[in-house]
Amino acid sequence: MASSSKKVHVTEVVLRDAHQSLLATRMRTEDMLPICDKLDKAGYWSLEAWGGATFDACLRFLKEDPWERLRKLKQALPKTPIQMLLRGQNLLGYRHYSDDVVEAFVKKSAECGVDVFRIFDAMNDMRNIEVSVKAVLKAGKHAQGAICYTTSPVHTTGHFVDMARQMEKMGCQSIAMKDMAGLITPARTVELFAALSKAVKVPLAFHSHTTVGMANISMYLAVENGARHVDTAISSLSWGTSHSPTESMVVAFQNTPYDTGLKLELLQEIGFYFRAVRKKYHQFESEYAEIDTRVIVNQVPGGMISNLSNQLKEQGALNRMNEVLAEIPRVREDLGFPPLVTPTSQIVGTQAVLNVLTGKRYKSITNEVKLYLQGRYGKAPGKINETVRNMAIGDEEVITCRPADKLKPEMHRLRDEIGELARSEEDVLTYAMFPEIGRKFLEERAAGTLKPEELKPPKSAEAASLPAYAPTDFNVTMHGETYHIRVTGAGHKTEEQRPFFVSVDGVPEQILIETLTETVPTEAGMVDTRRASRGSKRPKASKEGHVTSSMPGTIVDILVKAGAKVKAGDPVLVIEAMKMENEVPAPVTGMVKAVNVAKGDSVNPDEALVEIE
């Protein structure tokens, strides 16, 4: 039952969502532990410190064991509950896991230090959070259900109230309105929280981002209309795509019935600490960290815009961004208005890009869209366009049950697959979440070769004030010999290469710089460098039977061999782009003359990946 007190309870998100929003989830445990004593004394209701993209980032970039981070934080925060974000049946990955994996993961997370589990489903399909909620309650921890806020004809106040009632009946001990894109307006906040506070008895929490700039006033109005829990980020990691500043909201609630009781002086000390820490991660600052009102017009979160921008820029199609932004709401409507949050934001966004770049809507359909339209992610909030569904899956069965009901228990198989690399149950669960990067992490740990990505030193004040020009006059030492290099000019830059004119010890020379790597976006703004196909000997697509990719990506699977006969429309390749897999069909009927790719290759548009005659 909710307390009769109107006191506002604050959840601080600086250890998770704040740096995920602003610094690509790159903050290291070593920069969290020194301030934990003050965070623990501040009087927060909880500290969000785990879940979301932190698990992925620890393994992929920081080379830290996420379970060890959790244990260290629990030891350093003896008084304050640790909170995590859990994607229901998806846990921390991007697919549905079997119930035994969900139960094992929740149990282990509780044992290692999680006290509050905020549980949501990208589709707002309540069936997809049931097992997680039951597992949390069984572990004796706090189960907070989270409703993904979005706007559409079907996302009415009554729709959200119905979900809240289902969560309360399920056993959730509090309910959060999770506004991941900062969409909620002050007027809608009043309407929604007034209705929710009448409909359910459990405490209500308000979570929003300051992407559009409305979160502060909406938060206050949510509290005036029944919310008793709010999420804030310490000021030095607030605003933009992050959250409302903790200190500002504490001051706003002072001397009112909603006073948080938090001490401003201690919060200011914490803020100064993270101001210094933020400078350490300057290389991960996002250009989309400021207020961005486009989300209101296009319903596209800022982080999703940056992801789309990178994809379009890579293929020289950045000028088509407005077309993609206009297409996203249309795709979202075709798919029954899912909220745009991981993984549905990637599903909708990638399909919109394909629709624009191929010149024909749904000419190429990603595997994830096909799975979505089969019901494999859950029930869509609204009505699905049956014409699109028929184009994607034809007469294939559409499941109406809970998607995980189709999954067999997995823990035994996972233990066998990872074998002796797993020293504990935590290691098995790490592998379960992310098989490729999890295995790589465990292999590097066993070999003693774990090495986090390099942090670039902050620029000095003097260097920061100078123009950011590349040097044109320098010395190069090779094999004990030093050469004086002066760059005298540069030729025309193409996608693959650029000539530079230099003098070496006064002798004119020409060098050709050829691009061999590319940077591609991943979760929460992360970047990963892969071997590129640029500069490869792969022929350009010039004939009707040449199979090409609509966008840059990575070869996941090759479905044909040279000499095989194929029909037009048969899938021949599977390509991953923007974390989505896409089957590439044969453009003509004929025989496969050549396969010019291998698994793991990075490919670009206009290359002949497979040749059919």
Can I get a quick summary?
By secondary structure, this protein is an alpha/beta fold. It folds into 5 domains: 9-284, TIM Barrel (Alpha-Beta Barrel), CATH 3.20.20.70; 294-405, Cyclin A, domain 1 (Orthogonal Bundle), CATH 1.10.472; 410-447, no CATH class; 473-512, no CATH class; 546-612, RNA polymerase II/Efflux pump adaptor protein, barrel-sandwich hybrid domain (OB fold (Dihydrolipoamide Acetyltransferase, E2P), Beta Barrel), CATH 2.40.50.100.
Please describe what this structure looks like.
This protein is α/β, with parallel strands linked by helices and 613 residues long. The protein folds into five domains: 9-284, TIM Barrel (Alpha-Beta Barrel), CATH 3.20.20; 294-405, Orthogonal Bundle (Cyclin A, domain 1); 410-447, no CATH class; 473-512, no CATH class; 546-612, Beta Barrel (OB fold (Dihydrolipoamide Acetyltransferase, E2P)), CATH 2.40.50. The protein is 35% helix and 19% strand. The protein is built from 21 helices and 22 strands. The model is unreliable at 517-535 (pLDDT under 50).
